[in-house]
Backbone:
């Protein structure tokens, strides 16, 4: 089966990766590596062992991850690691340690934090957990029967104080807008804190699924805004051969515009491969929250517009993607109707009054019909 159809040739023989402007590995394998938070944890740990991170190759990093990777790929032989008590899992303590690491005041990385937080991508501190009701354990590897694979996020310094409830409210709002969202919840601890959690879609119990982010599928660096939603719409059409996936991309684009989610970079969209047929589908939506984006603009432009995209730009892309104007108008209006109910979803997620006002003030005013 072709695991990376756009950039890796599907034939016999040796393939040399030459796209070094993108990175040292093909996008297929880069998806297994952490970035941001996970990379910071790994580098801190390496330094504590007296190893200079600059001298560690990407293959060394994959070996250190071994079977503790996101998605379907694992790497063998995995590097040896010390025993970690998977049953000791305190979200409050892990969140506090995360803040210490971000501030630079923590030298040693807690083993549980390194194991559970070392593989996910993204800049925000997060951990992989196994969940059974209110029971939690480290979830970076296979789980005991009855447990489900989840991700729990902690707040970064730049986040609003109630970032967890806000992201949960966004998940509720996106679902009301017709966007497919994994199960989400708030994990509350005795200290009065609440952390946003989402069920992983790359796992079904302990069964793995191959997930390929859009950015690594086309080998575009997510740190450098260079793509347009037209690229994503085209990729969805070509890869899935399913117009419904194109419509789902269009709906998410309309939501990100209406709800001021401008951290919509190329790794915040992904595709899942069916292990039986090799067919691809658009993954459920993830990382939906209120975010300003680079320079206050959308990470991916909308018909070339990053600062103030509106209905005109959305309809222009709809036409190019083969979405009829009535259908596009209907999707835009459905999304707008859900975003107009922000205060209801925020109240359900127990967002503070200040947080409700701050998020609502960021929403762009609906543009008039062209």
Residues:
């Amino acid at each position: 089966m072709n695991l990376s159809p756009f950039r890796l040739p599907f034939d016999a023989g040796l393939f040399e990766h030459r796209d070094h402007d993108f990175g040292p590995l093909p996008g297929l394998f880069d998806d297994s590596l952490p970035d941001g938070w996970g990379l910071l944890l790994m580098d801190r740990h390496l330094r504590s062992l007296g190893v200079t991170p600059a001298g560690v190759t990407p293959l060394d990093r994959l070996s250190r991850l071994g079977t503790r990777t996101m998605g379907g790929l694992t790497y063998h032989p995995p590097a040896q690691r010390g025993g970690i008590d998977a049953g000791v899992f305190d979200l409050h303590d892990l969140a506090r340690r995360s803040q210490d690491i971000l501030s630079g005041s923590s030298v040693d990385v807690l083993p549980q934090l390194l194991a559970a937080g070392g593989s996910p991508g993204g800049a925000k501190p997060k951990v992989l957990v196994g969940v059974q009701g209110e029971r939690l354990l480290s979830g970076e590897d296979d789980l005991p029967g009855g447990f489900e694979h989840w991700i729990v996020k902690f707040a970064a310094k730049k986040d609003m104080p109630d970032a967890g409830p806000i992201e949960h409210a966004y998940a509720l709002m996106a679902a009301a807008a017709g966007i497919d969202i994994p199960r989400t919840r708030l994990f509350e601890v005795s200290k009065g804190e609440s952390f946003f959690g989402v069920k992983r879609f790359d796992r079904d119990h302990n069964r793995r699924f191959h997930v390929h982010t859009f950015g690594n599928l086309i080998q575009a660096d997510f740190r450098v805004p260079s793509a347009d939603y037209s690229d994503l719409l085209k990729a969805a059409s070509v890869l899935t051969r399913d117009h419904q996936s194109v419509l789902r991309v269009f709906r998410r684009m309309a939501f990100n515009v209406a709800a001021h989610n401008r951290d919509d970079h190329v790794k915040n969209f992904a595709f899942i491969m069916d292990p039986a047929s090799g067919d691809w589908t658009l993954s459920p939506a993830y990382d939906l929250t209120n975010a300003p984006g680079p320079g206050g603009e959308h990470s991916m432009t909308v018909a070339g517009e990053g600062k103030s995209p509106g209905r005109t730009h959305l309809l222009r892309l709809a036409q190019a993607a083969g979405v009829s104007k009535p259908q596009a108008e209907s999707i835009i209006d459905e999304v707008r109707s859900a975003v107009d109910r922000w205060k209801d979803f925020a109240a359900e997620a127990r967002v503070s009054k200040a947080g409700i006002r701050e998020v609502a003030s960021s929403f762009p005013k609906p543009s008039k019909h062209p």
User: Anything to note?
Assistant: The two ends are 45 Å apart (CA to CA).
